[in-house]
Amino acid sequence: MTTVTTRRPGARRGLATPWLMLFPAIVLFVLFFAAPIVYTLVLSFQKSQVKGLGLGSGGRSTVFAGLENYVSALTDADFLASVARVGVYGLILIPTMLGLALLFALLLDSKRTRAKGFSRVTIFLPYAVPAVISSLLWGFLFLPSVSPFFDIANRFGITLPDLLSGDAVIVAIANIALWGGVGFNMVVMYTSLKAIPTDIYEAAKLDGASEVQVALRIKIPIIMPSLIMTAIFSIIATLQVFAEPVTLKPLSNSISSTFTPLMTVYRDAFTRNDVYSASATSIIIAVAIFALSFLFLRVVQRRAFGGEN
């Protein structure tokens, strides 16, 4: 004897409800995330071919370029130099920023610290300042002709270094990013610290552990996943640095139009009007960000998340 089960209309509507709720997010994801990536990928394999003087409606045509744009980008001396500068910039910024953020988070989590609310707001507040505004603010503080720091130093016969000239401009850019990024990372770490059960601290104190030992042997290992997450975010932000050098460029002769990889993309797309080369360079940067983040996560995965792979 066979039994035939029929699905009720109400059950069908119940199955469709999650998809209907997800539909607006899926549409926005496709239109503003997936579609631009696919379009950029398509453009990266094309180039503009000029016929004759390039005038008239048939003077320029779009043809398939294969890997030509990628080879051109990877052999471009300006692009490779910008990658090297960003590497130095990251070596200066990331350890310093995460170290200060961890130090501030541990200090705020200490019972001996006073005015914790005011301190949290003060440390986090620079993160709320847009990058362009903070770059202008620090740019004028670094500029010898208008900076009050240079005036005060000159009165005491002290010579301050010009951070907007020569290779020192990387330190100036890193300082701006440091000022704005410490607060965000501190909040992430501090939130993780507050989630640790107080029983662990009490047991450690009964065993005679000092506050420094508690921080080094209990707090930091427990919040290691948060440290890894902030490190990955910092790596991504480092490779995408753009607003700070662009804003400082009018104030310094040491910043070229290809100072960072994203500035190289901007030059190709909007100065040279070569969106095809700019698309290829963008894909290279995106792949590099993914590869570095994935590699970093794989290296520290076992210690951070207890995984074996």
TrEMBL record:
CDD domains: TM_PBP2 (cd06261). Residues 83-296 form the ABC transmembrane type-1 domain. It is a multi-pass membrane protein. Signal peptide: none annotated. It is found in: Cell membrane. Its main location: membrane. The chain crosses the membrane at residues 20-42, 88-109, 121-143, 163-188, 222-243, 275-297. Pfam families: BPD_transp_1 (PF00528). Keywords: Cell membrane, Membrane, Transmembrane, Transmembrane helix, Transport. InterPro entries: ABC_transporter_permease, MetI-like, MetI-like_sf. Belongs to the binding-protein-dependent transport system permease family. PANTHER family: ABC TRANSPORTER PERMEASE PROTEIN, DIACETYLCHITOBIOSE UPTAKE SYSTEM PERMEASE PROTEIN NGCF. This is Sugar ABC transporter permease. It comes from Herbiconiux daphne.
